[in-house]
Amino acid sequence: MRASKAFTGMALALLHASICAVALAQEPMQAGPGIGPALPESIAPGDPRRAAIFSAVHHAVDVKLKYPSTFIVRVLQVQGGFAFAELRPVAANGKTMDLGSMNAGWNGDDATLSVLLDRDRNGPWRVLELQVGTRVHPWASRFRAPDSLFPPDD
User: Fold this and answer.
1) For the chain, what is the total number of helices (H) and then of strands (E)?
2) CA distance 69 to 59
3) CA 109, 95, 130 angle in degrees (round to 5)?
4) In this structure, are residues 79 and 39 in contact, taking their beta carbons and an 8 Å threshold?
5) What is the structure's pLDDT at 100?
6) CB contact at 8 A, 60 and 68
7) pLDDT tens string 45-62
8) Using an 8 Å Cβ cutoff, are 149 and 41 in contact?
9) How far is Cα 15 from Cα 10, in angstroms, rounded to an integer?
């Protein structure tokens, strides 16, 4: 009889832990009227998250381009554990770089670079995908990123 009670207690504790883990893994919710999934948040210059995101982006792009990169930021936003950026890489002279014509293994004739990143809790950001061009990325379904993180097509 005692073994049965001990087993039941352990089973309930495991069930409770599983429910808590699932609840913590869910996307943050907004408080107040119209409660729903959190909306993407734009990251302004000076925000420490911006530096952490660009540390990962610069590393990935610099390896691909084989020299240090500088960007004009068109879009930078976070939602849940994901970040999305649309960037225009520029050369030291300030001119926009044509990524499609560079020997970086990228195809495309757009000078915009789209980047998707993720991170675990408060861990470092990591680049999941880099793409030349601004649209038609299937990343929301492929990486289970929120659809609202990506700007609508123009």
Assistant:
1) 3, 5
2) 9
3) 45
4) yes
5) 60
6) no
7) 999 999 999 999 988 888
8) no
9) 9
